[in-house]
Amino acid sequence: MINNRLKRYLYRVGGYSPAQGQQGLTLIECLVAIIIVGLIGSAIAPALVISVATRVQSQKAEQALEVAQSEIDRVRLLVERSTANTGNLPPSTTITGTNPDRRVAEVAGPNFGAPVAAPTTAFQTREVNLNGNRFAVQSYRTPGRFVGSVPVTFAMGVRVYDYDAVLTGTGSLDKDPAALRMVNGVGQRGRRPLVALYTTVTSGESGNSLCQYIQHLNAAASVPSGCN
């Protein structure tokens, strides 16, 4: 009884309605909530896009490194097993000037165009698929030193590009690796390699391999005593 009298008094004085506590949200309140949610979503959307794009780039860079290292390991294994020849090694390219093996990184990037199954020039790429990601690989070597068809030593380079980067354009792609930083799209991997590795491959199986290697480095100018 007292509670009912108190409610009627509050209704007369302050406009309190007994059913007021049971009312839901009004249309205006719903619109305000929607606007607030929209503002929050528009504020965090760019950060989400950057986060996803950067994560994709990092994942592709890790896989590209694996692809490049496996290509170098493949060539080293061929040389170590004495099964390497001009037919199963990467295409050769000519570097003018002195010390071509030390300047292997100066070779231009590959030409634009779809990758081919078996590149015949140093400026073609071949497709490699790793865990659902497609890459275009430029693999090449310097002329080095050969005895007949058997390699003694040569320098090689491997650059791994995003597959889509090589499809359209004119001229050649960049040779310097992409900077792996925060991006909101493809970033530099649209034109630059994700990974670029350079190394020297030398045969050590034959008895005169060391002498031939020294001759190659010295341009046959001088060799230690005991070498033929």
Offer a concise description of the structure.
Helices cover 33% and strands 17% of the residues.
Account of the protein in words:
The mean pLDDT is 79. The chain has helices at residues 2-14, 27-80, 209-217; strands spanning 126-130, 133-141, 145-147, 150-162, 195-202. A hairpin with a 2-residue loop joins strand 1 (126-130) and strand 2. Strands 1, 2, 3, 4 and 5 form a five-stranded antiparallel beta sheet that branches. The protein is an alpha+beta fold and 228 residues long. It has one domain (42-202).
Percent of residues in helices = 25-40%
SS element count, helices:
3
Instruction: Give the radius of gyration.
Output: 33 Å
Can you summarize the main beta sheet?
5 strands, antiparallel
Class inferred from helices and paired strands: alpha+beta
Shape: elongated
In terms of topology, how is this protein built?
Elements: H1 2-14, H2 27-80, E1 126-130, E2 133-141, E3 145-147, E4 150-162, E5 195-202, H3 209-217
Structure keywords:
alpha+beta, elongated, single chain, 17% strand, 3 helices, 228 residues, 5-stranded antiparallel β-sheet
